[in-house]
Design brief:
Blueprint: E1 2-3, H1 4-10, H2 16-24, E2 28-30, E3 33-34, E4 41-42, E5 49-51, E6 54-55, E7 63-68, E8 97-98, E9 107-113, H3 116-123, E10 131-138, H4 143-151, E11 153-155, E12 158-160, E13 164-171, E14 174-181, H5 188-195, E15 200-208, E16 211-212, E17 221-223, H6 226-255
Parallel strand pairs: 9-15
Antiparallel strand pairs: 1-4, 2-3, 2-5, 5-6, 7-9, 7-17, 8-9, 10-14, 10-15, 11-12, 13-14, 15-16
Helix pairs in contact: 1-2
Length: 266
């Protein structure tokens, strides 16, 4: 038995969060009966699962790297019919979805997969998988301003910070930066730099963890190599281990008795 949302995600329907939304909306049936309980479990060998009356069957897991051009959306559904990243992979028969997002004006590396577990780990900020960007900004940010990016800047949805920022060079009255993030809030880089008075003119993601865009042209895609996939999984596994160790240390500190000579001891 496995959770219904996990089964749907592994079948390539979408991320677990998206699958939860489908379940809550009453669009998922098990053996012909609508299931809305998010904790529901199914046996893939016994139960018949469908979404919008379309049977769901486990797919082989696939992993694609796409160079998203500007003007393309990272969504599998757009009521306005605008270009989507999935439209650039017509040769992929499996139902893939984007790992994280790039906003419409940005370009660069997108991972496309139907592996919900891996996608969730790569997207969740607690695992801290780094994403690397090349950013062209108007003007010439000072050293102090770039330091503020790594120290943290308050936005409407909380404090955000870059893991690292480095100036690559100047182009006329603009500056090229290399920015590494371990978070993934909406339009984070653009909003951070806007707070400093520097408009982002161009933004291109060039790496997610150990996987790099390389010389892949805009609009083109390729499957991840086995070496890249293994490296990506190792990064995720190490991130899980580091998170587990931090949580263990935190629990140990909370459980440790207060020393007799501590100011908080009575």
């Amino acid at each position: 038995m496995q959770r219904l949302n996990k089964y749907l995600a592994h079948a390539g329907v979408g991320s677990r969060r998206y699958c939860d939304e489908l379940i809550a909306a009453g669009r998922v049936t098990v053996d012909g009966v609508v299931v809305t309980a998010l904790g529901a479990k199914v046996d893939p060998l016994v139960h018949r699962v469908a979404v919008d009356d379309q049977p769901v069957r486990p797919e082989r897991r696939v992993y694609w790297l796409l160079h998203k051009p500007p003007g393309v959306l990272c969504t599998n559904y757009d009521p306005d019919g605008r270009p989507r990243a999935v439209d650039l992979l017509p040769h992929v028969r499996e139902r893939v979805y984007t790992v994280g997002r790039l906003d419409e004006a940005s370009e660069g590396l997108l991972l496309m997969t139907n592996d919900g577990d891996l996608a969730a780990a790569l997207m969740h900020p607690r695992f801290g998988i780094p994403k690397t960007y090349l950013v062209q900004v108007a003007g010439k940010p000072s050293r102090e301003q770039l330091q503020r990016l790594t120290e943290g800047i308050w936005l409407s949805d909380g404090k955000v910070r870059a893991k690292s920022v480095r100036t690559l060079g100047h182009q006329g009255e603009s500056t090229w930066l290399r920015v590494v993030l371990c978070e993934g809030k909406n339009r984070e880089i653009r909003r951070m730099l806007a707070r400093l008075g520097h408009k982002v003119m161009r933004l291109k993601r060039i790496a997610i963890g150990p996987v790099r865009l390389g010389r892949l042209r805009r609009g083109k895609s390729r499957p991840l190599s086995q070496k890249e996939l293994e490296a990506l999984r190792r990064w995720v596994q190490l991130a899980r281990q580091r998170l587990a160790e931090r949580q263990s240390r935190l629990r140990a500190r909370r459980a440790s008795p207060v020393p007799p000579d501590s100011p908080t001891a009575t």
